[in-house]
Amino acid sequence: MSKRMKKFFGAAMVTVMMFAMSATAFAAGSPVASGTVNTVTKAVDKNGNAVNVKIQAMPEEYKAVAEEIKNVDNVKKVLGDAFVEGMSVVDVQDVVVDGNATFPLTITFKVPGVVSGTKVAVLHYDTEKSAWEVVESKAGDGTITATFNSLSPVAFVVDKNTAPGAKDGAKASPKTGEGMAVPFVATAAVILLIGAAVCFRKREVR
């Protein structure tokens, strides 16, 4: 293989790698596909005063119960008659209040894909009873608002049949950017083949 062809193939491989990496970075930003709830847009206490509420990493002591509630059968048990087919846990987060606050707290979370007509439920883990409980909640445009008498792990349940953004987003945003990487890699492969053909043709002419 000539030096010119070696350089060409090397450049083509670098191009393929760059496209694949950039495609992964773009796809990783889709909160709808991952179901991540990581933003509090508003929080007020019993008296309507603003409070600082944070979402933090799940403590080790609650990781097991957080994983258990992701099982749809466990969600059915907690929700009872309120459960509808299509409901699933989109995220479980540990929610804490920073500073003093007078409960109950009404907190609005950003949840991409949810609309005002989406059927939702918010579950709170009662650490005293060691059990999940249903708290009052309401869907908004891209949000879920819930009222809590205490804070600890919170599970967000969404009926994806009534959340068009969540349902469509899950299909349109494959994991690790594979959906975007495929066309880029295919394009690079075509360029590689064309370049190889040109090189071989020039070699034959000589």
Task: Summarize the SSE layout with pairings.
Blueprint: H1 3-27, H2 31-34, E1 40-44, E2 52-56, H3 63-68, H4 72-79, E3 87-98, E4 105-110, E5 120-126, E6 131-135, E7 137-140, E8 143-148, E9 153-159, H5 164-172, H6 178-205
Antiparallel strand pairs: 1-4, 2-3, 3-9, 4-8, 5-6, 5-9, 7-8
Number of helices: 6
Order of helices and strands: HHEEHHEEEEEEEHH
Instruction: Give the CA-based shape.
Output: globular
The domain count comes to 2
The parts where pLDDT drops under 50 for at least 5 residues are 22-34, 167-181
| Residue-averaged pLDDT | 79
How is the main sheet built? 5 strands, antiparallel
Pairing-aware structural class of the strands and helices?
Answer: alpha+beta
Strand content: 25-35%
Q: What is the topology, as strand order, of the major beta sheet?
A: 2-3-9-5-6
Radius of gyration: 25 Å
Helix content: 25-40%
Q: How widely separated are the two ends?
A: 15 Å
- Number-wise, the strands total 9
**Assembly category:** single chain
Architecture overview:
This protein has 206 residues and is an alpha+beta fold. The chain has 2 domains: 3-28 and 175-205; 31-172, no CATH class. It is built from 6 helices and 9 strands; from the N terminus they run ααββααβββββββαα. It has a 5-stranded antiparallel β-sheet with strand order 2-3-9-5-6. It has a 4-stranded antiparallel β-sheet with strand order 1-4-8-7, with no helix packed on it. A hairpin with a 2-residue loop joins strand 7 (137-140) and strand 8 (143-148). The chain has helices spanning 3-27, 31-34, 63-68, 72-79, 164-172, 178-205, and strands spanning 40-44, 52-56, 87-98, 105-110, 120-126, 131-135, 137-140, 143-148, 153-159.
